[in-house]
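#lab-general

N.A. 3:47 PM
ok so I finally got the sequence cleaned up, no stray characters, all 207 residues accounted for. can someone with queue access submit it? mine expired

B.Y. 3:52 PM
send it over

N.A. 3:53 PM
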Amino acid sequence: MRSSRNPEAARARGGLVRCAAFLVAAALVFPTAGWPASQRELGFEQMVDTAEEIVVGRVVSSEARWQGKLIVTVSTVEVSEALKGPAHRRIEITQLGGTAVHPVIGTPVTMTASDQVALRSGEDVLLFVSTSKTGVRQLVGGAQGKFVVREEPTTGKSSVPVGPKQLKVVREGDQHRVAAEATTLDTMRERIRSCVQRQQKTPGGTP
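B.Y. 4:20 PM
back already:
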């Protein structure tokens, strides 16, 4: 009786297993080579102080690719306003992790990183950005460095949800729901600029 196993498929599966095992091992050690590991919670002034750039813009693309033996996701942001740092028309945010086709075995491989933040095409965002020693832009504090900017349908103003720690109860007819408290983008601008000015007046830039 002839075996129905496909040797090419078996080799591909074997290569995929070896590749996945390598990526798991690499993910454990790679943060020490310049990528952020699990992030501790940062205060607002710490965020402003740590960030070399704070920008408002729109995510125009996000693509995972191989970088040596690791997978990184590079997101391009079209900048509409620079609140701290030099003004650039576009910047790229690079994060460890993503799904990309392996160049040898031709199979999609997924690498996960605990602090990877989804930057989706079409999103309007406020980003706190730092630059590594190798010149790679990353988000300050992982997910803490990203705020989604939304337009309020009733007022037309841009708002920034500040996360689950500040909640409010919203009444809708006879029902109530819990929603994330939001502040306006104008208020965030004022807070950021105030922190930047205070830090510039303080020796060493630390409040």
